[in-house]
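Entry 14. Two folds queued back to back today. First construct below, sequence then structure tokens.
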Amino acid sequence: MEKFSVRLISPLAGVRDFKITGENLPLPENIVWTEQAFPRVLRATKMAATVSSSHRTIQLSELGNFHTLQQAKEFVVLWPASMSTHRLIAETREESPSINAIVLPLDGAFETRLDAARRFRRALSGRSLGSRFGALPDQTKIRHILNLRAHDGRRTGATYRQIAEVLLSREPIAPRDWRDHHLRHKIRAILGRADRLVAGGYRDLLFYPHRRGRTSDC
């Protein structure tokens, strides 16, 4: 078990989007999402009653390779540490925290939370996680990757024509042809979507296939 300090690096947007462990840049293995921002974050607790012979109580130390972050009376658990496939917020007053139940809010993202709980339970049993509910379609992933590549190109100082030439055209685009080129409006639309994605639209991706109550590019 490894313990890390947590520092806020994301601005408020209804909830705190994420925190990171340590002093490094945010990477998949050290991002700590909240359950409000990402429905695959599970709130775990310990019930007093046992409901069946298969009802397990798990000491967090049993998980092995994981990160834990203590905040007040809660432990944030990333397991396994290298991939953070499962993300838990454990409510406990014990020095050696243990859990035996998952809390599933009856909200619009219930199916995703249920799927995350199912995959966590299968992982505890050493079974394959199975298919993931609500995975982004490949075509949607490709579109968002294109949006972000265009955004990165503009940040490095590339012109719209250069971005279109690299990402969308098989032939060089002469500067004299750019004013009336058919890709001119397309690259503007792509960069518009990229701006919305970077400005907060990525939060919609965290809730896919559910909606967060406003129009998104998902």
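Second construct, same run, same settings:
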Amino acid sequence: MGLKPYFGLRGNALLRAALFLVVCPTFTCYGYNMGVTGGLLTLDAFNSQFPRIDTIHTHGAQNQENSQMQGTVIALYTVGGIFGALSCIFLGDLWGRRKVIFITNFVSIIGAILMTASFDFAQFIVARLVLGLGIGGYVATVPVWQSEISPAHKRGSNVVTDGIFVGVGVTLALWIDLGFYFVKGNSVSWRFPLAFQIVMPVITMIFITMLPESPRWLIKNGQVEEGRKVLAALLDLDEHSDDVNENILSIETSLAYCPGSWTDKTIKRNRRTEAMPRTQFFFYSMEGPRQVTHQHFHPELWSSYVGPNLLLGKCMAIFY
């Protein structure tokens, strides 16, 4: 007797499994990466390994030059994330949500390994880009997959949990940075915090293969019967029940209204639908500098306020 699909889970239990086995590690890792680097910038071992971005032990013109270089290198993570997210606009429809989530998590693991094993500044720069590429890809794809497997009446409450997990990740990163601050004169103080994040994408990669594909993507690609089975499992109903049939009809209707061609989508998109994402991206852009400053450089900023007491700065960053 073979194993039942999705661990034998159905309905709400299956949705909870998706939430805690894929969504949770995904956004915890995203938040972790937002917080972990700032703490490393204040470590002596890290600055001795990468003196080009040392702003703790330098002064004057050298400090200004290093500060600019530091900001550029840290921001490369975001640059990689932009390209990773944009690429998934096409790859998500081409390969499916689960495959894209698996691949982008694998890319982020490569980036994390490259960062952890960095001895050369150039390698660290490349690692930041690769890490951002992977994380940008799965951060853009997981909410789509999550919303497409969630019933309409639970979609908002399910997706809003993403922000909670981001906060957990940031807090976890700051506590780990604080703990390894006491490891003096050893590269483990910064290599372990960078390596620790690998655990989360590994969890995601393992379980995303065991959870359902988006029924919308399946139906869009002609796999209606497979989509029917997925919907039945998600709704905990018989495959040929009225609710399952209504969901399939609803998906097919929406796909007919929004065909695959970008030209067709543009023609049929009304002004309100067009204005919403533009407004959203506008406010994201306005929020971006604050997020980069507060998360990536949080411990360093507090350390600059409280003077030479780096430990106090790290503690203030955690409880801010």
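Quick look at the second one. The radius of gyration is 22 Å. The longest helix spans residues 60-95.
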